[in-house]
Design brief:
Layout: E1 20-21, H1 28-32, H2 35-44, E2 48-50, E3 55-58, H3 61-69, E4 74-75, H4 104-113, H5 118-142, E5 144-146, H6 147-164, H7 174-183, H8 190-210, H9 220-230, H10 235-248, H11 251-266, H12 268-276, H13 281-291, E6 297-302, E7 306-308, E8 311-313, E9 318-322, H14 323-326, H15 361-378, E10 379-384, E11 389-391, E12 398-401, E13 403-408, H16 411-414
The structure holds 3-methoxybenzoic acid.
The site of 3-methoxybenzoic acid (OVM) has 9 residues, from helix 10.
Amino acid sequence: MSNALPAETTWTIAPEGVPGLDLDPFSDYFLTDPYLGHAAMRDAGPVVWLERYGIYAVARYKEVSEVLANHAIFVSSRGVGISDFAKNKPWRPPSLLLEADPPEHTEARAVVTRIMNPKLIRSLKESFQAHADTVVVEVAARGHIDGVKDLAERYPLEVFPDWVGLDKDGRENLLPYGSMVFNTFGPINRLYEEALEKGSKAAVWIMEQCAPGRPAPGGFGAQVHAEAAAVGYTEDEQARLLRSFLSAGVDTTVHGIGSALHALAANPGQFELLKADPTRARATFEETVRHAAPVQTFFRTANEDTQIGGISIPEGSKVLMFLAAANRDPREWENPDDFEIMRRANGHVGFGFGIHACLGQMLARLEGECVLNSLARLVDKIEMTGEAEIQLNNTLRGLERLPLRLTPATEEQKG
Ligand code: OVM
């Protein structure tokens, strides 16, 4: 395993009064099991200093929420990764949504919410549920499956690109592209370099798909282009707006569904509760996003001198928000490390919070709910038959492999 320090960083000493920690949240070691590191940061203080990178970090629920809420000072337009766009040119043209501040962000978001709204999601519900039933019946009949490839990846990769209106050919580029995008929020380490190498080819296909006129007429992609054109966006901006959904919409939902399967297999009592009341499918997915946040971290940049929890943060500081640590902060949650589908998981920051809160969260919830609802009705048992394998990523948490045995529900159980 490589332990080389990231090329761009040097060792630093914490500013006076700020606890300094020498952990590397982008190392294989940390990413494999981040939870002790999360606790160490939360317990060290409201704000900590990560010596390896010379950045501030927040890991408690209160301070993560504060930074998310204060978008005027903790800006996104300087990048939400470790690199400051005011100092380094971004590797791709910035996202009009993720890497933007008001008023530009507000306008871009308004364009999208004209399409991505509760009415649209309701219109998808029936077909998404039917598709999940078909997939789950098939994998349950097979018995032994890889929960990641055969279910967590398969379902989103079937429903999402069809709905957007993407070409049938080339869809294998979606996951490597997302993996690259999320890896590049981190430092230039091995994960970053490898993802860039694997993802560059994928980026060509993604940008072809994003071109106005390319997505199938009537689909989400064409609608995004039409709404963006209507407010005067250039063709390049129309493409870049759609690019956000192909960047953020696939790996995240795949990891959410994979982690839900993992949690249910590891906690059979929780799957029994879900089977007893399949309407808990939605709450089960919400609890998964709290317990195993697919997006673990994002940065903000302090655009002026400010404070967090009484600690001075100078202009230009990068602040790393540990969304996943906030979601397990014992100051906020009871038994935070336990996966409990009956709890009120609402209020977690797995989808962020505030003006940048995940735009696709309704669609993500729909996908998660459909798969879990199908499992609750059509499967009697979910058992692990081998070790779950983690997929390392500088930003994402999810599985590479999850060997499972599924036992179909009997006709009697299906009622
Ligand atoms: C975007 C984008 C990319 C990655 C993540 C994300 C979680 C958005 O291109 O807008 O939000």
